[in-house]
Amino acid sequence: MTVTEFEAMPAVERAADTPGLVVMKFGGTSVGDADKLKRVAQRLVAARAAGSKVIAVVSAMGHTTDELVTLAQQVSPNPQERELDMLLSVGERISCALVAMAIVDLGQSAISLTGSQAGIVTDSTHTKAKIVEVRAHRIQEALDRDEIVLVAGFQGVSRESFDVTTLGRGGSDTTAVALAAALGADACEIYTDVRGVFTADPRLVATARKLDRVSFEEMLEMASSGAGVMMARSVEIARTHNVRLHVRSSFEDREGTWITEEDDPMLEKALISAVVHQREETVYRVSGVSSATLFGALAAANVNVDTILQSSAEIVFSAPPEDKRAAAAALNGLGGAWEARDDLGKVSVIGAGMKSHPGVAAKTFATLETAGIDPAVVSTSPIKIACHIPSDHVDAAVRALHDAFELA
Ligand code: ASP
Ligand code: MG
Questions:
Q1: Does ligand 1 lie within 6 Å of residue 65's CB atom?
Q2: Cβ pair 348, 275 in contact under 8 A
Q3: Strand 344-350 vs strand 120-122: parallel, antiparallel, or unpaired?
Q4: Which residue has the higher pLDDT, 3 or 357?
Q5: Which of 30, 42, 83, 361 has the largest count of CB atoms under 10 Å?
Q6: How far is the CA of 56 from the centre of ligand 1 (A)?
Q7: CATH at residue 161
Q8: Residue nearest to atom 5 of ligand 1 (CA)
Q9: What is the mean pLDDT of residues 239-248?
Q10: Whose CA is nearest to atom 6 of ligand 1?
Q11: How many of the other CB atoms lie within 10 Å of CB of 92?
Q12: Same domain, 315 and 169
C-alpha cells in the first residue's frame, strides 16, 4: 500500500472566469540570466500581443534558492523558519521585478507583485505553507489597466501573523495553478527546460519519448514519485479545480504535454506511461510505536510521508531526505526503536493501463531480477509499482524497465 500524504487542498474559490486569461509559469532555468529574463519578457509580450491577458509567475533565477539555503546554514545551523521564509522569498521577487523592467522596455506596461501583494493568503506553516485563499483584486485591477502581471512564485502571507510564508520547494507551480484556478484562466502553462513530460528522464534514457497527453492521475503519481517536472500539490489543485495544464519548453514554440482528464479520447491508451525515479529517499524502520502515534507525530512535524508498510513487528515508511531532521526529532520523542537507511532510491512504473491489465508487477520484478537488482521495499497504488532499490542501481533499473515496457 502506498499512502501519499498530499497536503490539504487550498480552499481556492473561483472568483471569476476571465476569458482569454493565461497564467504562464517560468522555472529557475528559464530565468537563469539576464538574456533569459529578456526572452521571457518577449514571450510574455508576444502572448499579450496575440490577445491574451497575461499573468506570469516566475521562479528564482537559476540556483538562487539553493544558494540562499546554503548561506542560511553557514550563518546558523538551525535557522528559524520564519526568517528562512523572509530570506527565500527574495529570490522570486528579484526575478519578477527584472522581468517587469524588461517588459516595460519592450513598450508594454507591466507590474510585479510579491505573493502577499498578489493576494496569496496562506496558513502559518513556515517553509511549507498551504494556500487558504486567493484575494486577487490587485491582479484583476492591473489586468484591467492592460498590464502584464508578474507574480513572485513560491510565497504568500500568513492570514494569522501577516508574515511572509513560502510554499515548499517547487512551490511556484502551486502559485501558478492556484492563480489559474482562482481567476478562471483558460490555461496554466508551465514553462521549463525540457519539452514536456517524458516516458523517462531523457538525461538518463536516450530513447525516452515526450508524451503528448497524460492524465491528472498519472501526472500526480509521476510528480510524487520523483519526476521533477511539477510539484505534486500543484497537480492536485489543477485536477480539483479543472485547470488545463500545459507543460512545455521555454526555449521553443512547439506543443509540450497537456495534462488532461482520464476520459480524454486523445489520451494514449498505453499500459505504462512512464518510468520515474528518485535517487534518494530515506527509508525508516520503526518498532514499539503504534501507527496512529507514529504518523500523528510525523504529520505534526510536517514530514511528507510516502510509502508506508506495516507488519505486526514493525512499521516501514519513506520520506524525502530533506525531511530527515524533522523526522528524527519526531521519532526521538516517541520512545520506540528506529533506524533510517540513506542508501536507497526509488524507481516507479506508472500507467493507468495497469488497472485493467495484470502482469505489470511480474514483469517489473523479472526485469529487475535479470538486471541483478533486488528491491528492498515494494509498494503499489492502482496505477503504480514503486521499488526502493540501492541508489547506485537506479539508473540501470530505469533503463531496463523503459526497455522492458517498450516505451521508446
Ligand atoms: N525557487 C523555489 C525553489 O527552488 C520555488 C520554485 O522554483 O518553484 O524551490
Ligand atoms: Mg520546479
A1: yes
A2: yes
A3: unpaired
A4: 357
A5: 30
A6: 15
A7: 3.40.1160.10
A8: 170
A9: 95
A10: 170
A11: 31
A12: no
